[in-house]
Amino acid sequence: MTIKIEKKIKGYEVVKPEDKAAAAAQPAVVEPKEAPMAEVIQMHESLERPEALIGSTFKIKSPLFEHALYVTINDIVLNAGTPYEQRRPFEIFINSKNMDHFQWIVALTRILSAVFRKGGDVTFIVEELKAVFDPRGGYFKAGGVYMPSIVAEIGAVIEQHMKNIGLIHDPEMSDAQRALIAEKRAAYEQVTQKKTELSPTDADTNDSAGFPPGATLCAKCNTKALVLMDGCQTCLNCGYSKCG
Ligand SMILES: [Zn+2]
């Protein structure tokens, strides 16, 4: 038997017959039996794609695009049936009749899918995408939400999907906060109602899903819901107030 010695030899001793006997008498070390534990699978890039995945398709209609975009996000379910069950995005596809944007859309979806499969916290891509501004200007969606670009809307769709599967949690609005917003809104509507009675021509210009006409864009929630109340800019959607 040949053994390669990797370390520097500091000293040596010849094995005596009694040492051999002692070693033989010692019972072989028994590996402590590990308690049976479920192996928790985390997302990692060499995870094989199952035959079938579950997913959702979102439709994006933007005035910047002639045709609608269909965004499909497919999820993998990890540790199904265990307390560690987790649904995570695995791949994304974007389809459209519009071929003008084909190459950057393919590039974007490939990179996003790669990020999904890398594992770790993938929610950061939502903020990255939502921060993309189109130099030609953005557009308003129904509900008065401002979209600075089509890429930002893809980010918003991914965010919605991540909320649906429980990867992103909305900060819970307290009942007190909700009540405060409702109260502010009622007060504002009372004031504006008096005004519109005086000048009925200004009525009927409300295009932003229930928020008062003339409401401006809130920088916090990107919704046209900011109104001036008691000399203070107040958002009737998220409750943001310039005066704290
Ligand atoms: Zn707001």
UniProtKB/TrEMBL annotation:
InterPro entries the record matches: TSCPD_dom
Reactions this protein catalyses: a 2'-deoxyribonucleoside 5'-diphosphate + [thioredoxin]-disulfide + H2O = a ribonucleoside 5'-diphosphate + [thioredoxin]-dithiol
GO molecular function, one term: ribonucleoside-diphosphate reductase activity, thioredoxin disulfide as acceptor
Enzyme nomenclature, EC number: 1.17.4.1
Lineage top rank: taxon: Bacteria
A UniProt-annotated Pfam family: TSCPD
GO biological process: DNA biosynthetic process
UniProt key word Lyase: no
Keywords of the record: DNA synthesis, Nucleotide-binding
Domain TSCPD: 49-162
Family: Belongs to the ribonucleoside diphosphate reductase class-2 family.
Name the record gives this protein: ribonucleoside-diphosphate reductase
Organism: Dyella monticola
Organismal lineage: Bacteria, Pseudomonadati, Pseudomonadota, Gammaproteobacteria, Lysobacterales
